[in-house]
């Protein structure tokens, strides 16, 4: 009986060894050149084993049985790994490395183009700095896990409602990334909503489809193409191209002003190049008289308080032994202008009692005085409100009938005007003045709003730039105020 049992086991071994020859099974486990009891028991231990992927490793000890895994042949005993979108086996970059991060619309000409065929612009090319402010404040963040976070800052420009500003709270979508699946073989991705409140997500404009070709991708620039769609998200003929710039991690991008505007020419500018303040453009107000507002600073012409360096004008407010110094530059009798668009690019100080201003007075100020000369405050900031700037006009034939009107504009939550350069502008015509911040209009006044007083804003005006310390409006420094504080001015430009 024993003999028959052994013969049957040998037969079973022969079948197993034949079917599993790729597993390199060695029946003589003891390597004694004899099939004995130990060898037979080893055979019994393999009963029921399979090798589905036929890689030579029993599935009971094989950590990867998927032949589609990129490490299947190279390392079949490791856990299955797959190619990421950069072509790395086992890589964790679900999106291209350059794509990961936050992006905002570029301000260059052609930031949005529209054409009848892919990559074309025969229908529309956006001028520089021409997009709606509700497009400029959008932030698109491509995440490591392959999702897209969207911050529309509360509102969008809705193409299907006459390009009106509409609230929008979609904050993220999943991405279906397609390597080589674009119009001409470039990579593309499709937005897949991850909540019921975002049934038709988009990038750039609401009449773009949910699929985007990656036309160009560098460490700082992203160009996407998307087919036009209708209000039901059905694609139609016509193509968008969108250009974005990369936001630096932990930083807010400087707003890039334009070098030109339609139907206007640059007539004067100070770009603050070189090593000295240009005395053909600027002179100083001096002294510590309180300046009509109970201010504390002494204005000086010292290089401790104002200087040019690295392409910027620096105005510095300092504290020494409880006294304050600063600078107030003016262009009276040097550079004076009547009408046009005026742009000033600046980064502002902050802090309790700090009061930076970029403003203008009528050239007749020495003879007529204030407020009859007129005052145009292009920008004022109260230091304890570092996210808000004010634009204001002052007028009146004398002090007793002084009139003023203005408004304010704030940055998105968490941002401050000390974080980056912003563009402060007025568009000034014979009978109207409009204030803008980063090309976003926020206040306007005209000659019909004088409340019975003369309209003084049809004369030549000169520039003033300063940092005041203390005063009736901002209040006074306290133990939270940090000195020195600086206002950096990149340029002043006049277009007419």
**Number of extended strands:** 30
What is the highest CATH level, the class of the largest domain?
A: Mainly Beta
Structural class: mainly beta
Mean of pLDDT: 85
Whole-number count of domains: 3
Distance between the termini: 114 Å
Low-confidence stretches: 1-23
Question: What are the key terms here?
Answer:
10-stranded mixed beta sheet, mainly beta, 8-stranded antiparallel beta barrel, disordered N terminus, 496 residues, 7% helix, single chain, Jelly Rolls
Short description:
By secondary structure, this protein is mainly beta. The chain has helices at 2-19, 37-45, 133-136, 365-368, and strands at 101-105, 112-115, 124-125, 139-142, 147-151, 155-158, 164-167, 172-178, 188-193, 211-217, 221-229, 235-246, 266-270, 283-285, 298-299, 306-309, 312-320, 323-326, 328-330, 336-337, 340-347, 354-362, 375-380, 388-395, 403-410, 422-428, 432-437, 440-446, 461-469, 485-495. It is built from 4 helices and 30 strands.
Helix-strand blueprint:
Elements: H1 2-19, H2 37-45, E1 101-105, E2 112-115, E3 124-125, H3 133-136, E4 139-142, E5 147-151, E6 155-158, E7 164-167, E8 172-178, E9 188-193, E10 211-217, E11 221-229, E12 235-246, E13 266-270, E14 283-285, E15 298-299, E16 306-309, E17 312-320, E18 323-326, E19 328-330, E20 336-337, E21 340-347, E22 354-362, H4 365-368, E23 375-380, E24 388-395, E25 403-410, E26 422-428, E27 432-437, E28 440-446, E29 461-469, E30 485-495
Parallel strand pairs: 15-18
Antiparallel strand pairs: 1-4, 1-12, 2-3, 2-12, 4-5, 5-8, 6-7, 8-9, 9-10, 10-11, 11-12, 13-30, 14-19, 16-17, 17-18, 17-30, 19-29, 20-29, 21-26, 21-30, 22-23, 22-29, 23-24, 24-25, 26-27, 27-28
């Amino acid at each position: 009986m024993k003999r028959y049992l052994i013969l049957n086991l040998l037969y079973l071994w022969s079948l197993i060894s034949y079917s599993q020859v790729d597993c390199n099974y060695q029946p003589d486990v003891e390597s004694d050149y004899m099939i004995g009891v130990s060898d037979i028991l080893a055979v019994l231990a393999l009963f029921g084993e399979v090798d589905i992927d036929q890689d030579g490793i029993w599935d009971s000890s094989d950590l990867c049985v998927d032949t589609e895994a990129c490490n299947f042949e190279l390392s079949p005993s490791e856990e299955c790994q797959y190619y990421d979108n950069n072509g790395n086996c086992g890589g964790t970059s679900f999106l291209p490395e350059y794509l990961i991060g936050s992006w905002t619309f570029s301000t260059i000409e052609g930031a949005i183009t529209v054409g009848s065929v892919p990559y074309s612009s025969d229908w529309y090319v956006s001028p520089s700095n021409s997009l709606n402010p509700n497009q400029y404040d959008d932030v698109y963040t491509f995440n490591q896990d392959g999702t897209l976070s969207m911050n529309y800052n509360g509102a969008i420009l809705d193409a299907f409602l006459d390009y009106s500003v509409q609230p929008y709270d979609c904050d993220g979508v999943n991405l279906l990334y397609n390597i080589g699946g674009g119009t001409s073989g470039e990579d593309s991705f499709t937005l897949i909503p991850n909540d019921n409140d975002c049934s038709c997500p988009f990038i750039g404009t609401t009449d773009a489809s949910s699929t985007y070709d990656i036309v160009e991708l560098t460490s700082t620039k992203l160009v996407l193409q998307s087919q036009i769609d209708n209000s039901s998200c059905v694609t139609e003929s016509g193509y968008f191209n969108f250009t974005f710039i990369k936001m630096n991690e932990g930083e807010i991008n400087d707003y890039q002003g334009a070098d030109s505007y339609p139907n206007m020419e640059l007539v004067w500018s100070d770009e603050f190049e070189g090593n000295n303040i240009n005395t053909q453009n600027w002179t100083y107000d001096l002294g510590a008289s309180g300046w009509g507002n109970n201010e504390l600073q002494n204005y000086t012409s010292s290089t401790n308080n104002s200087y040019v360096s690295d392409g910027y004008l620096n105005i510095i407010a300092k504290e020494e032994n409880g006294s304050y110094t600063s600078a107030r530059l003016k262009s009276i009798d040097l550079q004076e202008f009547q009408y046009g668009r005026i742009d000033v690019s600046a980064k502002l100080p902050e802090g309790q009692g700090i009061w930076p201003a970029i403003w203008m007075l009528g050239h007749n100020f020495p003879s007529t005085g204030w407020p009859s000369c007129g005052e145009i405050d292009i920008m004022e900031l109260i230091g304890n409100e570092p996210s808000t700037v004010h634009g204001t006009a002052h007028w009146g034939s004398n002090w007793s009938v002084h009139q003023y009107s203005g408004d304010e504009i704030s940055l998105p939550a968490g941002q401050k005007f000390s974080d980056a350069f912003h563009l402060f502008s007025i568009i000034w015509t014979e009978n109207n003045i409009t204030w803008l911040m980063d090309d976003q209009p926020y206040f306007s006044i005209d000659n019909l709003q004088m409340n019975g007083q003369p309209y003084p804003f049809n004369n030549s005006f000169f520039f003033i730039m300063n940092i005041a310390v203390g005063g009736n409006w901002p209040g006074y420094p306290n133990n939270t105020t940090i000195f020195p504080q600086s206002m950096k001015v990149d340029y002043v430009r006049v277009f007419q």
